[in-house]
Amino acid sequence: SLSDRLQATMKKIRGRGKVSEADVKQMTREIRLALLEADVNFKVVKSFVKRVQDRAVGQEVLKSLTPGQQVIKVVQEELTELMGGEQTKLNLALKPPTVLLFVGLQGAGKTTSAAKLANYIRKAHNKKPLMIAADIYRPAAIKQLQTLGGQLNIPVFSLGDQVNPVEIVRQGMEQAKSEHHDLVLIDTAGRLHIDEGLMDELEQIKAVSNPDEVFLVVDAMTGQDAVNVATAFNERLDLTGVIMTKLDGDTRGGAALSIRSVTGTPIKFVGMGEKMDALEPFHPDRMASRILGMGDVLSLIEKAQANIDEEKARDMQQKLLSVSFTLDDFLDQIGQIRNMGPLEDLLAMMPGANKFKGMKNMQIDEKKIGQTEAIIRSMTAQEKTEPDMINASRKKRIALGSGTSVADVNRLLKQFKDMKKMMKQFMGKTKGKKRNPFNL
Ligand code: GDP
Ligand code: MG
Q1: Which residues contact 219 (CB under 8 A, 6 or more apart)?
Q2: What is the pLDDT of residue 334?
Q3: Pick from 248, 291, 287: nearest CA to 267
Q4: Any binding-site annotation on 189?
Q5: Are the CB atoms for 240 and 84 separated by under 8 Å?
Q6: What H or E segment, with its residue span, contains residue 191?
Q7: The SRP54-type proteins GTP-binding domain covers which part of the protein (predicted)?
């Protein structure tokens, strides 16, 4: 996949202390191929690669002899830009109701996404939604929306399939107002291809509903074609956002990267599965990190910065690099990490987390933290700085003192060793100042 290929490319450059112009050329050549194979628009690829090359070869990296990681950062930032930079927020009406219109080809996921989003916004913004069934053409389309509405306990306005969709929407809007719904979601019909008759109908629906968002729903698996579809819909309906569905599937991912720069329309939400809760707001930066296999780096930084004392973190890093990281520091670290929320979540967000999944010792069981603290506190100062000196009889003494077993002590020592190794890996082989505790 695109992600695999980019990750392989990044891996080559990641640990570099120096990056030559030839290295950058080689890397951008590989990136270019990976993007083209993922069906990213040719023009988009061309300008993307050029920007990366300019920045990576330019002063930013070479003059300061910054290591490979900085090059990766350039790629990550440019990928983020490509997908729109900042996260684009949902446009809520100042004067209710907020009206969301869903358009797109048949099978793209309009009906599913309308229901998912109704559910999402109801929770996130405490709204009272009404869904309007305006697809009278696809057999059972109305039934489908009603079934989803039933599951979620969200009402559906329908006039059957014998009334003109524009009229259905007009009456649905009236009902929404009279029943004080502050959120209206309009599910429309799709076709297999762009079709004039449908476009006319959608224009009229737009006119009678005056939507705050016109969402184009596109299937991520359709690649380049999704971009053409977006262009066509945008010309007629002035789209305000894209909902990209089926990103959970085996997609080449190219559409997510080109759609914004080709159409100027931001992706606002992504569908990650068939279930009703499988919808997420789209974060370009997080997506870029995911594609590059950097884990959900930004969420991690947010958490880390909110919770870790920067000075202390830097100090700790120095210690790790100089191999003077002791069990006392470990204890301290545990305390800080504990403030950051469930450890499993944190580990999952760390770059290369997949690699650590199988390594049981990496997973610090929260319930065992208390025990861990007790064990470390039962050690002498010397044992804490030189854990290698802890022999069998010392282990027995520590276990007794902490109310644990020798097996527990062994496990902790192993964990400490692994953690040291893991942290070192994260820190990279680079020296010098780091801006944040995770060196990203
Ligand atoms: P519509 O014709 O545009 O209204 O499309 P539907 O909402 O009926 O969806 C078509 C099919 O795609 C259905 O089987 C959905 O369950 C499925 N689908 C929609 N969104 C997603 C998604 O994000 N992931 C997956 N895996 N399937 C989806
Ligand atoms: Mg539908």
Answers
A1: 105, 107, 108, 109, 226, 244, 245, 246
A2: 66
A3: 287
A4: yes
A5: no
A6: none
A7: 266-279
Rounded-to-integer distance, Cα 130 and Cα 97, Å: 10
Return the half-sphere exposure (C-beta side, CA atoms, 13 A cut-off) of residue 217. 28
How far apart, in whole angstroms, are the C-alpha atoms of residue 139 and residue 413? 64
Strand partners, 279: 271
Q: Is the CB of 140 under 6 A from ligand 1?
A: no
Angle at 311 between CA 345 and CA 368, to 5 degrees: 35
Q: Which two tokens stand for residue 45?
A: 């690829």
Residue 101 and residue 214 in contact, taking contact as beta carbons nearer than 8 Å? yes
Q: Which residue's CA is minimally distant from atom 26 of ligand 1?
A: 273
Q: What is the pLDDT of residues 201-243, one digit of tens each?
A: 999 999 999 999 999 999 988 877 888 899 999 999 999 999 9
pLDDT band for position 313 (50/70/90)? Answer: low
User: 246: annotated binding-site residue?
Assistant: yes
For residue 29, the SS3 value is helix
Nearest bound ligand to the CA of residue 269: 1
- CA 336, 341, 346 angle in degrees (round to 5)? 90
Q: Taking the alpha carbons of 271, 272, 277, 280 in that order, is the dihedral positive or negative?
A: negative
pLDDT category of residue 301 using cuts at 50, 70 and 90: very low
What's the pTM value of the predicted model, to 2 decimals?
A: 0.65
Least confident of 212-216, 330-334, 372-376: 330-334
231 lines ligand 1 (CB under 6 A): no
